[in-house]
Write a structure and sequence with these properties.
By secondary structure, the protein is mainly alpha-helical. The chain has 3 helices and no strands. α1 packs across α2.
């Protein structure tokens, strides 16, 4: 494990402390989870961009053309 010192405004620190307490975890756990969520979100964006770059629209349309044309089930219809 490593330690990082971060300077944050008092109001933000108080808010973090309240949220951590409400969640039943320590401030350190809260901040670790927050950082992990941010890293995951950024990695997901990069992953999706890489996948999109490999996409082939024409191949997708060929596959889609093979799907039967039918109405969706009642439970799957848009309102």
């Amino acid at each position: 494990m490593n330690t990082i010192s971060v300077h944050i405004p008092d109001s933000l620190k108080s808010h973090i402390e309240r949220l951590a307490r409400a969640d039943g975890i320590s401030v350190e756990q809260f901040l670790t989870l927050a950082a992990a969520e941010k890293v995951a979100a950024l990695d997901a964006g990069k992953y999706l961009a890489e996948r999109a770059a490999r996409g082939d629209r024409d191949a997708f349309l060929r596959v889609l053309a093979k799907a039967p044309s039918s109405e969706p089930e009642p439970w799957d219809r848009l309102p």
